[in-house]
Amino acid sequence: MLGPVILAASRSDKMRKLVSAAPVTKPVVNRFIPGETVDQVVPIVEEAVGKGLELTLDVVGEDITTPEQAAHARDAYLELIERLGDLGHGTKAEMSVKLSMFGQALEGGHELALANVRPVVEAAAAIGTTVTLDAEDHTTLDSMFAIHEELRKDFPQTGCVIQAYLFRTEADARRLAANGSRVRIVKGAYKEPAEVAYQDKSEIDKAYVRILKILMEGEGYPMIGSHDPRLIAIGQELARRAGRKLDEYEFQMLYGIRSEEHLRLAAEGHRMRVYTAYGTDWYGYFMRRLAEKPANLLFFVRSMITKN
Ligand SMILES: Cc1cc2nc3c(=O)[nH]c(=O)nc-3n(C[C@H](O)[C@H](O)[C@H](O)COP(=O)(O)OP(=O)(O)OC[C@H]3O[C@@H](n4cnc5c(N)ncnc54)[C@H](O)[C@@H]3O)c2cc1C
Q: Which of 49, 99, 185, 282 could form a disulfide bond with 113, CB atoms 3.0-4.6 angstroms apart?
């Protein structure tokens, strides 16, 4: 019940100001977003790689309102890639990007987002790593898939994300699996209407399994983005049945969630990539993490009450 309310708040400017300014917010935010600058995230990359984990790094930010902010977002990624180049971890540290942060929702946004993301993908390829395009709300996806296809002409390793809760996704999965793409499958984190998305958790889980089967049996590289123990076990089984070796698919989870499971899967020999977000514009990302698990919200509210 609480999830949709929090997701609605994640798009409210009033709530953004209130939550961002509350002095007790920061320690709760840090659980999910471990830094604000490249300097703060570099030691986290080193520690994770040292433990046998891989990463996908996200400079937080979305729903920007000017082309200058979009250019700033591009530059933040370029700065990150320069530092990653020095570390030399190759594909062990890749990037995730949200096209809304690159200007997708502005006038002429499709072309603007493509123009901003291309140099990021190029720079990533130059240091031997990759970029994955995150999936945002359903109205942005035709543009995201078109940009993905365009980028793949020169950089076939560019990945994208599909969301199990959308009715359209089985068809998207078939297309992407047939053309050999890297694809992250997730349940979906936005508030979507019943006309386009399953609302019932068990329907979403069933769709997730159907879609994962399509990806595992296809030509591409499936990335299982979930913390759900049942889906992780099913993912392992589907990979085995499809005859995939351990390096022919991977698991992905978010920083700060089920960290012991990250290590367990890596110790079993799986590729385990941790989605690690950093930066100052963390509000939207943080609110989606609260919406996924109401206990997070209770923890947050309790810390506000006890500290005030
Ligand atoms: C690597 C990665 C990338 C993602 N990229 C996108 C994207 O591009 N677009 C998009 O729409 N969504 C994205 N998501 C979010 C995704 O859509 C889900 O909202 C999120 O993963 C929760 O679903 P779940 O599969 O973990 O299952 P759930 O059933 O939600 O969770 C299973 C269990 O995991 C734990 N858990 C899950 N979420 C939390 C949390 N926030 N805090 C604490 N514990 C939690 C709980 O123990 C819970 O019982 C991404 C998720 C991951 C892991």
A: 99
* Sheet strands (E) in 19-158: 54-59, 93-97, 131-133
Q: State the pairing for strand pair 272-278/93-97.
A: unpaired
Which atom in ligand 1 lies closest to the alpha carbon of residue 228? Answer: 32
Is the Cβ atom of 275 under 6 angstroms away from ligand 1? yes
12 alpha carbon to ligand 1 midpoint, in Å?
A: 22
pLDDT by 10s per residue, the chain, length 308? 678 888 888 878 787 777 777 776 777 888 999 999 999 999 999 999 999 999 999 999 887 999 999 999 999 999 999 999 999 999 999 999 999 999 999 999 999 999 999 999 999 999 999 999 999 999 999 999 999 999 999 999 999 999 999 999 999 999 999 999 999 999 999 999 999 999 999 999 999 999 999 999 999 999 999 999 999 999 999 999 999 999 999 999 999 999 999 999 999 999 999 999 999 888 889 888 988 887 887 777 776 666 54
Q: Please identify, in words, the CATH class of the domain defined by 34-278.
A: alpha beta
252 Cβ closer than 6 Å to some ligand 1 atom? yes
Task: Name the residue with the closest Cα to ligand 1, atom 31.
Answer: 228
